[in-house]
Amino acid sequence: MRFVNKLRKKPSYGTKTLTVEEKAKAEIILWSIEQKKHFHEKENSVHGLQVVRGDDEVLRVKTRIIERDDDLSFLYPILLPSKHYLTECLIREYHLKYCHAGVQILAAKLRLQYWIFSSKRNIRSCVSRCVVCKRFTAKALTTPPILLPLDRVIKLETSIPFPKLFKRLPSTSRLLNNGAGPFSISIDCGPSSSLGPFKFDNRAFLAQRSVDCEDRMHTLNETAPL
Asked: Helix-strand-coil percent breakdown of the chain, rounded to 5?
């Protein structure tokens, strides 16, 4: 607009940056050019929608809520085509303005000023091409399971299954859970008990799950004289 006015030798502008009024006028001119290319008005109707042409030569939709006390841009939104470069630029601008909002939020915000044919379909198409949004919807990477280390695969079999180990304990023994973990046990035996067979089989069982069985067996050795 400034370039055209300078060619027409109109008064020059005082500032180098564009003002709000200049941006608004340029936007109205772009919408008017876009509508003339895509819409053919017939008896104040475009594709079944009642429209009115304002003083700025822009087609606006005549909604059913015009009796409502609200902003005129909401009561008479600007009619825009569904597939056009300017429409996509507008959707992308709103998408960045509202921090990469979703389809529902963008549709509500755009409806305050514009009426876009197949709006949700066009918004969904623009949002799906956003690189930042793709990072959050991309499928997570999966890695194959690793092999177990050597200290986890030695002595995989015991001479006696663990549930049958306690059959070899004396009748005066009791098995108590000390709360340290699912395989942590405390054994309370009488003075005449013998822990020899149990110590051998329990050592083989502990070797399946952990490498610190030496410390556990040291505790059993200390309790053996008891």
From this structure: 45, 10, 45
DSSP sequence for 133-181: HHHHHSPPP--PPPPPPGGGTS----SS-GGGGGGGS-TT-EEEE-SS-
Residue of 72, 97, 78, 71 whose CA lies nearest to 105? 97
Q: What is the pLDDT of residues 140-182, one digit of tens each?
A: 888 888 888 887 777 655 544 555 555 554 444 444 444 444 4
Q: Who contacts 198 (Cβ-Cβ below 8 Å, separation ≥6)?
A: 165, 166, 168, 169, 187
The dihedral built from the CA positions of residue 123, 129, 135 and 140, taken in this order, carries a sign that is: positive
Measured distance CA(73)–CA(96) in Å, rounded: 22
How far is it, in rounded angstroms, from Cα 29 to Cα 20? 14
Q: Which 8-state DSSP code applies to residue 39?
A: -
Distance CA 186, CA 1 (A): 88
Continuous segment of H or E residues that includes residue 123: helix 119-128
User: Quick one: angle between helices 196-209 and 213-223, nearest 10?
Assistant: 160
